[in-house]
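User: Show me a protein chain along with its predicted structure.
Assistant: Here is one chain, sequence first, then structure tokens.
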Amino acid sequence: MSFQYTYDANGKPVGVFIPINEWEKISNALVKAKKSGKGKNEKSALLERIKKGMKQVSEIEKKKIKSIPLQELLDEL
């Protein structure tokens, strides 16, 4: 993608020019994501995973569950 930036008198970027073919690709991808609801579902799933992780941290701090070594955690990823 080749974008062209516009700047104010102080040299601060204030806008971007996107070639129409690139804009159409971006726009179509956004429309498809909205129609499928995929974006919303992915966001909800991510939030749930974060909540689960925070709950586990709380339980580790309260000694309700045992923490695992960092290497074991990384291996699970």
